[in-house]
Amino acid sequence: MSDPIETAIFEKLSRIDPKGDNGKSIEPSDVAKDLQPEQWQRMLPKVRAVALGLMRQGKLTITKKGKAIDPNAMKGVVRLRLPTAEEAAAAKAALPPVTDEDDGDFA
């Protein structure tokens, strides 16, 4: 986890929900404000993009009005929280399978 935005998201979540089982959430703007207090509006699209990537990996859930949203329909005011076991499993199942066919040879 070397990405500073990713680190900031998980640090903020761990502060409000240390065990990760209460379903508490944060706003992407809070993360942006932590990272760049003076120009947080410029940071917000980057935070949302990282959150979207984390959701697709099953590491984060993006919610709207308390319900998980489709990552392709992310618009408006959203919140970030740690995923339930079911949400993480569904996200990982949706990822394309990794194969051993690509051995790096370019013929």
Automatic annotation (TrEMBL):
Q: Which InterPro entries match?
A: DUF3253, WH-like_DNA-bd_sf, WH_DNA-bd_sf
Q: Which Gene3D superfamilies match?
A: Winged helix-like DNA-binding domain superfamily/Winged helix DNA-binding domain
Name the coiled-coil region(s). none
Q: Which Pfam families match?
A: DUF3253
Give the source species.
Brevundimonas goettingensis
Superkingdom of source? Bacteria
Q: Where is the composition biased (Basic and acidic residues)?
A: 12-24
Q: Where is this region: Disordered?
A: 11-32
**Record field: transmembrane:** none
Protein name, as recorded: DUF3253 domain-containing protein
Kindly indicate where the leader peptide sits in this chain.
Answer: none
